[in-house]
């Protein structure tokens, strides 16, 4: 719907079709990594994630500037589709990060009894 609102140029659709993958990658990495971080490291992680989120949005946002499919794909190809590769990796990597077991207060009291 957002791409239709902006116009019918293919670049809009290429950009908007990538945004959900960026959000999925961000969410999966956050859920996989943040449980292992201290509050201080979470602060740094949030800044790091924010910085890279906007770099990915700039990468896919070239569709808004170039508008036509061929120039957008040529721009991404000139960068070896590195944004797509990293986004894909950020979606897959959390599968290999073991989930941190969080001990509830009930389990902790049982453990000490």
Structure in words:
The chain is mostly helical. Helices cover 75% and strands 0% of the residues. The chain contains seven helices and no strands. It is elongated and about 65 Å long.
- C-alpha end-to-end distance: 58 Å
Structural class call reads mainly alpha
Provide the residue-averaged pLDDT. 89
Uncertain segments: none
Number of beta-strand segments: 0
Order of helices and strands: HHHHHHH
Shape: elongated
What summary fits the major beta sheet? none
Percentage beta strand:
under 5%
Rg from alpha-carbon coordinates: 19 Å
Helix content: over 70%
Total of helices: 7
Write the layout of secondary structure elements.
Blueprint: H1 2-6, H2 10-33, H3 39-60, H4 62-66, H5 69-78, H6 82-92, H7 105-112
Helix pairs in contact: 2-3, 2-6
List descriptors.
75% helix, 113 residues, 7 helices, mainly alpha
Quick take:
The chain is an all-alpha fold and 113 residues long. The protein contains seven helices and no strands. Helix content is 75%, strand content 0%.
């Amino acid at each position: 719907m957002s791409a239709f609102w902006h116009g019918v140029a293919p670049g809009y659709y290429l950009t908007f079709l990538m945004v959900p993958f960026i959000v999925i990658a961000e969410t999966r990495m956050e859920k996989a990594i943040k449980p292992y971080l201290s509050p201080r490291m979470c602060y740094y992680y949030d800044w790091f994630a924010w910085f890279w989120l906007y770099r990915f949005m700039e990468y896919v946002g070239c569709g808004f500037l170039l508008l036509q499919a061929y120039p957008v794909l040529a721009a991404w190809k000139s960068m070896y589709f590195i944004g797509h590769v990293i986004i894909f990796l950020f979606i897959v990597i959390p599968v290999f990060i073991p989930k941190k077991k969080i001990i509830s207060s009930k389990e902790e009291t049982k453990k000490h009894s």
